[in-house]
Amino acid sequence: KPASDPVSTTDFVFGTLAVTYEPRKGIDLLLKAIRKLKDRKINVKFKIGGGNKDNDYINLKKLEDELQVSDYVEWFDKINRADVVKFMQSCDCFVMPSLSESFGTVYIEAIACGKPVIATKCGGPESIVDDSIGLLVNVGDVDDLVDALIHMIEHKSDYSEEICRNYFLDHFSKQVVTKQYMHLYNNVVNK
Length: 191
Description:
The protein is an alpha/beta fold. Helices cover about 45% and strands about 15% of the residues. It has a 6-stranded parallel beta sheet with strand order 3-2-1-4-5-6, with helices on both faces. The chain starts with 12 loop residues before the first strand and ends with a helix.
């Protein structure tokens, strides 16, 4: 299929999980990107959940209505720790277009579940995401986000669960992190 042909599928699900819907999480940008996908007749589903039904949520729901993308979005309430794995496993790709993140544990949770991620170059994600397990997009760039979403749909098979899971084990498993802490501790103690 030529790259210029629109992708049309309902078999791809993006997941977004945020403890808060505050503006710095970039959910408004995601909704704008969804509108662009809809305009291109790319039919996918977005599961968004985890935050409180506060003013930020109300503002996002208003934006969703204005953009007429409610048929693309399924909202979830807060998800307890035990259900995070189920949520991640129900998605093909995790996406969080944050404006800033100090680290981004949720990206690591997605990778641990074997899911590729789309994140922004906003601080923390650059130390987590590489080309083998996802894509980094420019902060606040809706078009860059749209391109990444389409890339994930078109290249789904390039991001296998095994590759993502092994990346997690090699970089963020308990054994690896413990060795890093021990190395750091030994350097401090031996100075």
